[in-house]
Amino acid sequence: MLVLNNTNAQLLTFFLTGIPGFESVHIWISIPICFMYLLAILGNLTTLFVIRTESSLHEPMYYFLSMLALSDLGLSFSSLPSMLRIFLFNAMEISADACIAQEFFIHGFTGMESSMLLIMSFDCFPTIFNPLRYNSILTSSRILHRGLIFDIKSILLVLPLPFTLNRLRYCNKHLLSHSYCLHQDVMKLACSDNRVNFYYGLFVALCMMSDSVFIAVSYGFNLKTVLGIASHGEQVKALNTCVSHICAVLIFFVPIITLATIHHFAKHKSPLAMILIADAFLVVPSLMNPIVYCVKSWQIRVKVLEKLSLKSK
């Protein structure tokens, strides 16, 4: 990744934060954290494996779900090393290079997941409005192109962040406020002018928040279409197709919008609340998305149970 320029910085090591006031029991806190990470990784790998090996699941909805699972895995693997070092070994130090690399990957995969949720919200409309032409409207090539375009957009959006951090000068402050590196957290440690970082970081945050606005608008149109269906049974069936998407959107965007709002606008911050929200933002979506889609999608649930029953024989 980037090497922090020695002429621009006197500090080559940052210190991450565990859970304030609970340092003595970090080793016990590591047990549920490791368990949740393990479940998240196994859940998303299982989702990818089932969709990859079952030809009946080679449909647009499951291609999008595969991309979402890949984003969740990226977020998990980006934050897992520092979380394990803090809670298992009480090792708070992280080099500047590793910190800059981590914040790039975390923000990049966050943007990818936000983009996937946006695409999936648009995917719901043809499912409800014209289900008979769904597969002809969303072909495999169109899905791949959309996914690549939005992934490239997410990478390009966060690409300047490491360079803007690299140009700053860091003096005496060295304590970060989370268990992993975030752009808005690192830039506040600079003793040089960080206005470029602030405004560009705010721009990136607003772009991701705009995804949530477009998702809300998309589901507004979907709801209007559903209410126009005459049959109550068909209304329930149509709504049920998008329930899992809505759950995934809420699980992802509620903590990230809360965290971004606190970082940029709150004057009196609770360190404990910020750390818990930040940890939930990385762990909970990756953990819950496979569960939500497995529960709400009977096709995936059946295939997963079939795989498990075959292995148990």
From TrEMBL:
Q: Which SUPFAM superfamilies match?
A: Family A G protein-coupled receptor-like
Q: Which UniProt keywords apply?
A: G-protein coupled receptor, Membrane, Olfaction, Receptor, Sensory transduction, Transducer, Transmembrane, Transmembrane helix
Q: Does the keyword Lipid metabolism apply?
A: no
Q: Where in the cell is it found?
A: Membrane
The keyword Transmembrane belongs to this UniProt entry's keyword annotation: yes
Read off the Gene3D superfamilies from this record.
Answer: Rhodopsin 7-helix transmembrane proteins
Where does the G-protein coupled receptors family 1 profile domain lie?
Answer: 43-293
Transmembrane feature ranges: 25-50, 62-84, 104-122, 143-163, 198-221, 242-266, 272-295
One Gene Ontology cellular component term attached to this UniProt record is: plasma membrane
Q: Where is the signal peptide?
A: none
Any single GO BP term? cellular response to lipid
Role according to the record: Putative odorant or sperm cell receptor.
Q: What is this protein called?
A: G-protein coupled receptors family 1 profile domain-containing protein
